[in-house]
Amino acid sequence: EPEVTQTPSHQVTQMGQEVILRCVPISNHLYFYWYRQILGQKVEFLVSFYNNEISEKSEIFDDQFSVERPDGSNFTLKIRSTKLEDSAMYFCASSVSRPYNSPLHFGNGTRLTVT
Amino acid sequence: AQSVTQLGSHVSVSEGALVLLRCNYSSSVPPYLFWYVQYPNQGLQLLLKYTSAATLVKGINGFEAEFKKSETSFHLTKPSAHMSDAAEYFCAVTSGNTPLVFGKGTRLSVIA
User: B41 vs A108: CB contact, 8 Å cut-off?
Assistant: First the structure.
């Protein structure tokens, strides 16, 4: 069964550094998402992306975050200047269609540790 | 705005016993409700979803959930727990036009 793949599985970075988290969504999916989960807290929506532009974003997704689909397969989340509070598990997801009641297919996540 | 509350961050059951994971939601419009499961070192996998067709929803691995509007609940059950059911379970809600809102999750442990 097709799956969403995320790399790396674990990323350690120093505060202030830029990180790029990578995702390969399922090939025929058109909608892409990033969620994150800080340890012990809820899974939180960050951003949704469709047709090469952001369709929706949360308050968490401020100017230090950006997303990109640089080619036909990858979907990336960039954090420009990481903070300690950015430490979390970041999940990429994709779906065939909107609205949001279409099931999301999630990757295994990237654990980001900011020191 | 929608929200979800999962009662109990950790539930422990014996193998063969009933599994009951609680989820209460808040929504000003008819909700779409989901249960996702996360096994260790894996992503979130859809267990089942409610989309107003039937109040009792059957999912994968023998799980089911019942939508009760009067109680604003969508509890997840399984008649007989198996060791392989040990995982983290997440309830989520959406109006259909807004991103999924997740609960904090409930870790299920199954004791032999």
Answer: yes
How buried is A57 (Cβ within 10 angstroms: 0-12 exposed, 13-18 middle, 19+ buried)?
middle
B93 forms beta bridges with: B33, B101
Sign of CA dihedral A7, A12, A15, A16: negative
Alpha helices in A1-115, H assignment, sequence order: none
Residues B38, B36: Cα–Cα separation, whole Å: 7
Does A50 lie at the interface with B, CB-CB under 8 angstroms? Answer: no
Q: Rounded to a whole number, what is the largest CA-CA distance in chain A?
A: 38
pLDDT digits (tens, 9 = 90+) for B14-46: 999 999 999 999 988 888 999 999 988 788 899
Picking from A96, A101, A102 by the largest number of B CB atoms within 10 A of its own CB, the best residue to mutate is A101
SS3 B83: helix
Chain B contact present for A39, CB below 8 A: no
- DSSP symbols for B12-58: EEETTSPEEEEEEEE-SS--EEEEEEE-TTS-EEEEEEE-SS-SEEE
Q: Write the residue in B43, B94, B104 that is nearest to A101 by C-beta.
A: B94
Residue A36's pLDDT is what? Answer: 95
Residue of B nearest to A34 (CA): B99
